[in-house]
Every structure is written in structure tokens, then in C-alpha cells.
Design a protein that fits this description.
The structure is a single chain. The protein is α/β, with parallel strands linked by helices. It is globular and about 40 Å long. The protein has a single domain, classed as 3-Layer(aba) Sandwich (Rossmann fold), CATH 3.40.50. Helix 1 crosses helix 9 and helix 2 packs across helix 3. 57% of the residues lie in helices and 15% in strands. The termini are close together. One of its GO terms (biological process) is AMP salvage. Belongs to the adenylate kinase family. Catalyzes the reversible transfer of the terminal phosphate group between ATP and AMP. Plays an important role in cellular energy homeostasis and in adenine nucleotide metabolism.
């Protein structure tokens, strides 16, 4: 069982690379955004609960997010592993994820951080914003605010995983194929 956490600021290429990695290694790509949308669209109990928080402009509590993730994992036990994208985002979530995986006698195999300069990433997102239709991809101030949130809440997780010898930084600048090759080298050597 290979369980990988893919880190990177918005625009770093996590979603693009996750598509390649899930196929190559038979991993289930777990994007918390996709999981939220699925549960809300299908009006699951957890989706309804999450929507009540979102409708009030509040963040969905960790316990709801984690329960959605656990339910998705439990429904997909036939894969070679999981690729976590967008989760964990906080130290509390990382600890909860470790506890959940441990209950199945699994663990995080590696965390991989796609690293790139903020200014390059801002340009990527602004370019993406021309076609994505997402308003938060079209406003540089909002993009930089997302980076500030990432630096404050998610970046500290790198230290958490470094202490476990499970963190691997990867240069996120280059062609899609070059970055995929760098990621594959890390995974192949685990």
C-alpha cells in the first residue's frame, strides 16, 4: 500500500501531476474539494452537514472533513494506495490521518512537496484564470492571500513529515513531463 500526500501551493501543478501519478501507480486520487462536491451534490448526510457550515461562510470542521475522507477510503480498498491532495492542511488533520491509517495498519509512505517561486505560480494561476472561470484565479491579491494561508497553516506540516523522514521536495518548475519524471523517481525509490 503506497500512501502519498502531495503538497504544493495553488498553481504548483498538484492536480495535473495527480492525474499522471494515479494512473501510473494505480492510486486513488483523493482531492478534498472533489470529495466535498460529491457529498454535497449527492446530498449525503455528511454533505448536508458540510453545506450548513459553508452556507454560513464557515470552514467545515476537521471531524466532518475527516469522516468524508474515511468514508471514501473505505469504499475504495481495491487500489494500490491513495494520493492525498489538499489534505492534510493542518497539523491536527495530519495527526488524525495518521490515526485513521494506523487503524488499518497503513501509514503515509511519503509526502512530496512541489516547490516553485510564488511569482511564477501567481502567473500560472492568472493564466489559468483566463479559462477556469474561478474568480479566485483572476485576482492577484486573492492568490497571494491563499499563499499566506498556505504558509501559515500547511507549510508547518513539512517539518512534521521531515521528522518522520517522509518529506521529499521536488522542483515544480519545468514541463509537465519533466516534473512527472522527478515525482516518479521519488516514488520509485520509496
Amino acid at each position: 500500500m503506497i500512501n502519498i500526500v502531495l503538497f504544493g501551493k495553488p498553481g504548483s501543478g498538484k492536480g495535473t501531476q495527480a492525474e499522471f501519478l494515479k494512473e501510473k501507480y494505480n492510486l486513488m486520487h483523493l482531492s478534498t474539494g472533489d470529495i466535498f462536491r460529491f457529498n454535497i451534490k449527492n446530498e449525503t448526510e455528511l454533505g448536508k452537514l458540510a453545506k450548513t457550515y459553508m452556507d454560513n461562510g464557515d470552514l467545515v470542521p476537521d471531524e466532518v472533513t475527516i469522516k468524508m475522507l474515511e468514508d471514501t477510503v473505505d469504499k475504495n480498498l481495491d487500489v494500490a494506495g491513495f494520493l492525498f491532495d489538499g489534505f492534510p492542511r493542518t497539523l491536527a488533520q495530519a495527526i488524525e490521518l495518521d490515526t485513521f491509517l494506523d487503524s488499518k495498519s497503513w501509514e503515509i509512505t511519503a509526502t512530496i512537496g512541489l516547490e516553485a517561486d510564488d511569482d511564477i505560480l501567481v502567473q500560472r494561476i492568472l493564466e489559468r484564470g483566463k479559462t477556469s472561470g474561478r474568480s479566485d484565479d483572476q485576482d492577484e491579491d486573492k492568490i497571494r492571500h491563499r499563499y499566506q494561508e498556505y504558509n501559515e497553516k500547511t507549510a508547518p506540516l513539512m517539518e512534521f513529515y521531515k521528522k518522520q523522514n517522509k518529506f521529499y521536495p521536488v522542483d515544480g518548475i519545468g514541463s509537465i513531463a519533466e516534473i512527472t519524471e522527478r515525482l516518479s523517481k521519488v516514488i520509485d525509490n520509496l
